[in-house]
Amino acid sequence: MHAIIRLDGPDGPATESPTWATTDHLTDAVSTAAGRVLVRSPYSPAVGELTLAWGAQLDIRPLHADGDGPDDDAVAAYVAKYVTKGASDTGSGTDQPLTTWHDIDTAPVNTHVRTLIRTCWRLGGLPEYAHLRLRAWAHTLGYRGHILTKSRAYSTTYAALRAERAQHLGHTDTPDTITERQWRYVGSGHTPGAALIAAGITEDLARNREAAREALSTGGDVS
Length: 223
Prior knowledge:
Strand content: under 5%
Number of helices: 6
Largest sheet: 2 strands, antiparallel
Order of helices and strands: HEEEEHHHHH
Strand order of the largest sheet: 1-2
Distance between the termini: 54 Å
Oligomer: single chain
Radius of gyration: 28 Å
Number of strands: 4
């Protein structure tokens, strides 16, 4: 999990943080909080009661700020780096759901992630964990939340992003957003004219494959 943690002033993001709020103080606070977190799982006849806590692999790095406040570019680049990675790249599972035990064996993941997926699948078969739907979310190691969560105090909305984008493109007066909700299914596949063209291409490809096979059987040139 990657978290961006900031310390604002007494009135929120619009105010400066206190003078004593140094990077070292915030780092110590994060380390202390991670060391004190402790959650006990509900008792299960199969696995008992488990104690869950953060491990020792805690890597805290400061995101540098400019003279006017947080460096938004640095924050955006940090978040985008991990959000745009596939699940298999970050070691958190696969991008597609798994439907059978055999799917786990063929999943393009390393041995460690495969073991976690198998554990999730086994736990999903226990009656006491049925409400968690672990097998349905085994491809994400049982996690079914959104890939990104945001703070209510320091965040933005899609409407604000659309307005910023429109202003960046030169539209100073942002029109009201129009949402089209009346959709209907028209059809799929080729139109009659496109179907004739596709049929002709298919026939040409079949004829070329047949000619290549004949050339190979007689020792001719198929280039």
